[in-house]
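ok so i was messing around last nite and threw this chain in just to see what happens. nothing serious, just curious
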Amino acid sequence: MLHREDPDGLIVITQPAHAWLAAQLARHWGNDRFGTFAPWEDVCLAAEQHDVGMAGWEAAPTLNPQTGRPHNYIDLPGRAHTEIVSHTSQIVLSQGRYAALLVSLLFTRVWEKYYTGPDSAAYAHEVQSFLARERDFQAAALSTLQRDPIYAADATPEVVARNQRLVMAWDTLSL
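result:
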């Protein structure tokens, strides 16, 4: 969840709604100066579905005891957040392997940056297990995509890395 303060009260934006906005950015990305991306539909799908794993939790969110409000994505406790998103790439896999790979790469990058420091020592095992599962999934997905004649050209390390950075940029811009 995202929180926006408003004179009339708190505006709560769900993670899937935020992801929908990220997808709108993706669908309108590119011009004569910096081009577009491929595979277009798969990358847009990754942007749109990257937070689909949060939908169940957001139907009955936990409350932040300090504020009395639903936790937002920043103050959601790390252990709970890891558990909530741990199945996201598998959910997206049912829609497409390339999109699922990009979602998995997004979450491993975020978790490596924010959930592996000293503050996460209490749930380090869960985080490391999550990261190991995601890395295994990424290796298998990438191998499959590289052998697929439809996806092989877009499954090179350079193209996948660029597309992952784009999904991360749209995720950030849509906050």
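not much to say yet. The chain is about 60% helix and 5% strand.
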